Amino acid sequence: MSPDILAPLRAPIASLPGVGPRFSSLLAKLVGGDSVRDLLFHLPIDFLDRRHVTTIAAAQPGAIATLRIDIIRHELPEKKSHPTRVIIGDATGFAEIVLFHPARLPQFPKGAKLLISGKLDLFADRKTMPHPDFVLPVTQEQNFPFIEPVWPLTAGIVPRVFRRAALAALTLLPDLPEWHDSSILKSRKWPGFAESFHLLHAPTETIPDEKPFERLAYDELLARQIAFAVSRSIRRKRPGISLTGDGRLRKSALQKFGFSLTASQLQALREIDTDLAAPQKMLRLLQGDVGSGKTILALLAMLRAVEAGAQAALLAPTEILAKQHFSTIQKYASVPVAFLSGNIKGKARGDILEGLADGAIPLLVGTHAIFQKHVEFQNLALAVIDEQHRFGVDQRLAFAAKGAKTDLLVMTATPIPRSLLLTHWGEMDISRLTEKPAGRKPITTTMHKLADLEKVFAAIARAIARGGRIYWVCPLVSESEFLDATAAIHRHATLREKFGNIVTLAHGQMDPSARDGALKSFQAGIAKILVATTVIEVGVDVPEANVIVIEHAERFGLAQLHQLRGRVGRGAAASFCLLLHDDKLSTTTKKRLSFLKQTEDGFAIADEDFRTRGPGDYLGTKQSGLPGYRLADPEKHEDLLPMARQDAILILQRDPKLESPRGHALKILLNLFDQREALTTVKSG
Ligand code: ADP
Ligand code: MG
Predict the structure, then answer these.
(1) Ligand 1 atom nearest residue 261's Cα
(2) First and final C-alpha spacing in the chain
(3) Ligand 1 pocket, residue 415 CB under 6 Å
(4) Which residues of 503-529 are buried (b: 16+ CB within 10 A; e: fewer)?
(5) Collapsing DSSP states into helix, strand and coil, what is residue 225?
(6) 294 lines ligand 1 (CB under 6 A)
(7) From CA 545, how far away is CA 571, in angstroms rounded?
(8) CA of 290 to the centre of ligand 2 (A)
(9) CB 3.0–4.6 Å: which of 146, 217, 265, 289 could bond 261 by disulfide?
């Protein structure tokens, strides 16, 4: 394969004829890259139909009209600030073109026969077209954009400029070999790669359907899935440690649990055990709702590592959560467990570091502090990361690097929508906990206006009288933890007035020891109402808590509300979730919140959340649309994802080094979508 075949697409936008330096930098900013390829990847979002050529008499004001006209005369303005008028006519009557920029006047020479298209207005009973969008002599009609793509544009770039650049870019499209199986193309009725761009950027006969969009989306998805598949297969080839055990520690933990694992937990554990036993590195995502029993599984996996004579560590995103895990693990593991966070200092810290280095401490639980440089393990075989999307990829890798062959298990309570799983966690193997431990009661979810606060207070008083315990979650005021805290402090004060000193408070701005104190007092049942910001979102496990009130529920995402709701329903008592919302809710918001009343299925809620709010919240980014994807749209092309994943796996099974003719074409595809790492890996075998 000659890599130069893509050279024309790598050329800078500035090299396109008719695109000056000013426009090229604006265009590069708009399309998110400065190459011809980037420009082509900026696809239209709509198409205007200018095919209906009409007459002046028949043209409707208020709509786009395409007219074949004669230029009758020019009416130059008396004042410079006034527009120039060009009187036009056809067999049915007269109209005028209004030009605010006289520079365009030469496009309309007297006596010319032109084809023009633009929005028609009615001004003082006269049909008027201000600044026609397109003008061509009738002799050049074949070049007229009867179907006009609508591109997303920014200030400074008018459609005409983009079109000129796009048409120039199209001429540079090389003739690339087809990388898709002909059967897919046939059954999906997909056009070729270059053809798709022609159809979209310069449609001629018909308004394009979804086919070219799909084809290009599939190209992008397939390139990514091949890269994922390559990285998965490389990992499988890399030596890891084969961890097997005699089951001694596990058995004793299971006895202490006093419950048996759910079918879903057993299935996930089998998958984890297979990975642990295999002599390759594990990289597995364990996905399951709050309370589905992930931590318990993590513990069992960690105990297996210890049975095999190695060490295991669990990393949590917050100190509270880490402590919670620590106490769970201490309760069930019959071997030493250490806790490490930034707050552990001096001799205590020194002792832990020593125990980790000489292997005396087989299990470690902690926060970020556990992957700092001077934390050395004797033999770290398994690393577990909880709530992994809160950690950056670098941190994840730094953690795994603590043990040369460390297996990695990441857990998330955020049910990640299927499309995101495949697009962003695609290099991992996935286990899902789809059922809750037996004995969990359904949670009754209701919605209340904030104006009805007194009624809510009364309901809470009744719940407390029946021995209940209440979480009161305060609104997310802003990005600022400080403002969130203020709201919580305020609510805490009002509730104290009502209920006295059984109300306590926890928020992110508090001194950690005071916050821990509040959580402990709630856990012990001394406090009956815990007012909190979303610090309780993850990890807090108080089975006696049976009511959760969430203020301004409309400000949260569904998945987040669902996670919060999961704080209750863990004990024997009937549980309730009260969603307090703004008095005025839009119908869509009301519908969105109502979804929570219907179901407790975290995966369904995640998919709904994803549909209504976009992926930003899952990925910790504010943008909508799939970051990192330019042609694929998560909603429209969701069905293509599993197909691309399957396709990628098959391709690499048949041709791991991509040496067949199709393999060569696929290398071009990888190149096109910047999957250089995958390319290098494939080449080096
Ligand atoms: P997660 O980490 O997914 O939130 P945990 O592992 O913390 O879930 O489990 C939540 C609660 O359910 C804990 O109190 C745990 O002891 C309990 N639990 C876990 N698995 C089971 C099971 N199979 N049967 C009954 N209770 C379980
Ligand atoms: Mg947990």
Answers:
(1) 23
(2) 17
(3) no
(4) bbbbbbbbeeeebbebbebbbeeebbb
(5) helix
(6) yes
(7) 8
(8) 6
(9) 265
* pLDDT bucket at 461, cuts 50 / 70 / 90: very high
Question: Which H, E and C letters describe 645-685, residue by residue?
Answer: HHHHHHHHHHCCCCCCHHHHHHHHHHHHCCCHHHHHHHHHC
What's phi and psi for 413, nearest 5 deg?
-90, -10
Handedness of CA 61, 63, 69, 75 (dihedral sign): positive
Q: Give pLDDT tens digits for 525-547.
A: 999 999 998 766 555 678 899 99
Q: Pick from 139, 126, 146, 109: which is nearest to 59 by CA?
A: 126
Ligand 1 binding pocket includes 287 (Cβ within 6 Å): no
Give residue-wise pLDDT tens across range 103-132: 888 999 999 999 999 999 998 888 999 989
Given ligand 1 and candidates 296, 411, 434, which is best to mutate, with the most ligand atoms within 8 Å of its CB?
296
The CB of 296 under 6 Å from ligand 1? The reply is yes
Backbone angles phi, psi at 526, to 5 degrees: -70, -45
Percentage helix, strand, coil for the chain under 3-state DSSP, each rounded to 5: 45, 20, 35
- The side-by-side arrangement of strands in the sheet containing 429-433 is 337-340, 363-366, 311-315, 380-386, 407-412, 283-288, 429-433
Distance CA 12, CA 9 (A): 8
Angle, helix 453-465 to helix 481-499, in steps of 10 degrees: 60
Is 262 touching ligand 1 by the criterion CB < 6 Å? yes
Is any atom of ligand 1 closer than 6 Å to the C-beta of 324? no
The Cα–Cα gap between 74 and 361 comes to 91
Q: How far is the CA of 411 from the centre of ligand 2 (A)?
A: 8
- The whole model's pTM is what? 0.68
pLDDT of residue 620: 47
Q: Which pLDDT tens digit goes with each residue over 659-679?
A: 999 999 999 999 999 888 888
Would you say the CB of residue 261 lies under 6 angstroms from ligand 1? yes
Can you tell me the distance from the alpha carbon of 610 to that of 618, in angstroms, rounded to the nearest whole number?
A: 8
Spatial separation of the C-alpha atoms in residues 228 and 285, rounded to whole Å: 14
Q: Which of 159-163, 419-423, 528-532 is most confident?
A: 528-532
Strands 363-366, 380-386: parallel, antiparallel or unpaired by DSSP? unpaired
Pick left, alpha or beta for residue 346 (phi over 0 → left; psi -120 to 50 → alpha; otherwise beta). left
Ligand 1 neighbourhood includes 602 CB (under 6 angstroms): no
Coil, helix or strand for 295? helix
Please list the residues that pair with 12 across neighbouring strands.
Answer: 35
Ligand nearest to the CA of 292: 1
Beta pairing, strands 126-130 & 121-123: antiparallel
Beta bridge partners of 119: 64
Q: 3-state secondary structure string, 412-436? A: ECCCCCHHHHHHHCCCCEEEEECCC
Range in 123-132, 250-259, 483-492 the model is least confident about: 483-492
DSSP secondary structure of 56-111: TTTPPTTSEEEEEEEEEEEE--SSTTSPEEEEEEETTEEEEEEESSGGGGGGS-TT
Question: Is residue 352 classed exposed, middle or buried when 0-12, 13-18 and 19+ CB atoms within 10 A define those classes?
Answer: buried
Residue 111's region, left for phi above 0, alpha for psi from -120 to 50, else beta, is: left
Atom of ligand 1 nearest to the CA of 541: 14
Tell me the CA–centroid distance for residue 302 and ligand 2, in Å: 15
Arithmetic mean of pLDDT over the chain: 87
Nearest CA to ligand 1 atom 20: 293
| Domains of the chain listed by start with CATH number | 3-47+152-209 (no CATH), 51-144 (2.40.50.140), 248-433 (3.40.50.300), 443-599 (3.40.50.300)
d(CA 12, CA 33): 9
Task: Report which bound ligand comes closest to the CA of 329.
Answer: 1
